[in-house]
Amino acid sequence: ILLLNRGMSESERSGLTISSEIPTGIGAWSPFNPHKRLHRYVALFFICFLSFGSYFCYDNPAALANVIQKDMDVSAAQFMLLYSWYSWPNTVLCFFGGYLLDRVFGIRVGTLIFSAFCIAGQTIFASAALLGPSGFWLMEVGRFVFGLGGESLAVAQNTYSVLWFKGSELNMVFGLQLSFSRVGSTVNMNIMNPIYEGLVQAFPNNEDYTNLALALYVGVLLCLYSFICGVILLFIDKRAARILKRQSSESGETVKLTDVRYFPVTFWLLSIICVTYYSAVFPFIGVGKIFFLGKFGMNDSQASLVDSIVYLISAGASPLFGFMVDYSGRNIIYLLVAVIGTLLSHMLLAYTWITPWLAMTIMGITYSLCACALWPMVALIIPQHQLGTAYGCMQSIQNLGLAVSSVLVGVILDAGGYLILELFFVSCLFVCLICTVLLILVDDYQGVGLNLSTAQREKIRLEEEERAAKDLAAQEEAARQLEEDEKPAELLKPRSASVLRQRFYSMVTPEAEDPEYRSRSMSAHAALARRSIVA
Whose CA is closest to 229, among 108, 93, 409? Predict the structure, then answer.
């Protein structure tokens, strides 16, 4: 153990116990040794790709929006149902995804089950396209099944990250996770249309919807790849748990719905900000390609690229913004900047003919900043034991809003066109802006501390720890004083005859307390008695 400790980081030593096994042979090499940091990075590779396939498939409809509407002969309202059906199951599952992982399936098996739902949903979605326009209802079923696994798979991914990277590396790991996920979304937006066009040229005799189905099967392959990563991670994690004698970790998603009634007004303001902000981003990306094709006269590849710029920027900027917010604090100020920036980008798209690259770049930056500033504030408002319920509630509200807004976006687009649709997005962001200002006022009035700097929060934390230590010391002193006050009462309690006799002998002859002395004394008295009888 001492030899293994040489050259290890503090986080590596924390996982090494006297009862840990010491691998030998190839298992002792750094890439295969759970005691070594390199092995954790090997696990991180597979953790990051757990949700790559699901994020790739989530925006398949956006990447092929014009193709799906043409080949399946559906309106914009029907097309947006593909996003709405994904969100509906997650209005409930976000509450219970962590519970299923913790209490029912376990993290390893649960990951594979949710990944299997993603494969099944994408397979149904792709296969339904083979039926042509008559199979669109089955495509909706596929998206519903896909939604049963997508969000809960992200919970499983977070659980694995916490299990393997407790401590200072966790923020970096979460940033890498988000980056890999957004890379999956970006790749989807930029390769699906070229794949479809290539299939059309390679199989000119096929029906267009047949080539659409073949293109969608690419998503099935990537979901299968993520499933294989889950299988490999299962064996890696099982072996590491055996060698390190590690306790199974829980995801932290403890569901207790009664806690909701105790949530403060600041939490509900954050929830409204969350749903109104993301309702102006994700549904727009879903129909953005057609918007760029129509208003700005772009070709398919240009429209797909500009529509994906939000995800592309997020992949690189999210870890940087996360570090910036962690270092400086002031979450509400960053949130306010993000909301104003996204509102500006939608107004540029709605009322000007300025190149959409500018507006989408602003949206990508502010979207990344919003995510880094918004979600950590929940932990500043809600106690630790209620965080699972709080995040589950907030994600459920977000998915409910996305399910409804996706339907509204399709109806508005069919009835009024893109200008009216942009007015809808601007209205959502105005509501978001008003709630952000209200959050600032409530935070200042109640002294919650959401807009404090990191240094101020650390100072308050240290003061609270010092106050808690003083309170604990005072309680211990009070308990000790109470114990001393009770001693005279103990002396007044009645004692048995044997206890009184023993106490008397101990005062007259202290040696009587010695067992050896008592044994010798008893032997002497017995010998004297025998001599008396003989005499």
Answer: 108
Specify the range with the lowest mean pLDDT, choosing from 294-298, 374-378, 493-497. 493-497
SS3 string, 341-396, reads HHHHHHHHHHHCCCCHHHHHHHHHHHHHHHHHHHCHHHHHHCCHHHHHHHHHHHHH
Q: Is the dihedral of CA 270, 271, 273, 278 positive or negative?
A: positive
The whole-number pLDDT of residue 474 equals 84
Give the 3-state secondary structure of residue 453.
Answer: strand
Range 162-200 burial, b when 16+ CB lie within 10 A, else e? ebbbeeebeeebbbbbbbbbbbbbbbbbbbbbebbeebb
pLDDT at 30 over 70: no
CA–CA dist 71, 217 (Å, integer)? 16
SS (H, E, C) 303-344: HHHHHCHHHHHHHHHHHHHHHHHHHHECHHHHHHHHHHHHHH
Those residues with Cβ within 8 angstroms of residue 302's Cβ, 6 or more apart along the chain or in another chain = 292
Distance, C-alpha 75 to centroid of its chain: 35
Cα 452 to its chain centre, rounded Å, is 24
Token pair belonging to 139: 């495509």
**Measured between alpha carbons, how far is 313 from 302 in angstroms, rounded to an integer?**
16
Give the alpha-carbon dihedral of 283, 287, 291, 293, to 10 degrees. Answer: 150
What does the pLDDT read at residue 319? 80
pLDDT confidence band for 18 (50 / 70 / 90): very low
CB hemisphere CA count around 395 (13 angstroms):
22
Count of other CB atoms within 10 angstroms of residue 525 = 9
Q: How far, in whole angstroms, is CA 22 from its chain's centroid?
A: 32
Write the CB contacts of 333 (distance below 8 Å, at least 6 apart in sequence).
Answer: 451
Question: In this structure, are residues 397 and 274 in contact, taking their beta carbons and an 8 Å threshold?
Answer: yes
Distances from the Cα of 288 to the Cα of 204, 278, 283, 285, 403, angstroms: 28, 15, 8, 5, 17
User: Are 77 and 49 spatial neighbours (Cβ–Cβ below 8 Å)?
Assistant: no
Please report, as a single letter, which amino acid is at residue 1: I
Window from 164-173, 219-228, 317-326, 403-412 with minimum mean pLDDT: 164-173
pLDDT value of residue 504:
60
Distance, CA of 398 to CA of 272 (rounded, Å)? 8
pLDDT of residue 11: 41
Distance CA 423, CA 281 (A): 13
Closest among 429, 424, 397, 419 to 408, alpha carbons compared: 424
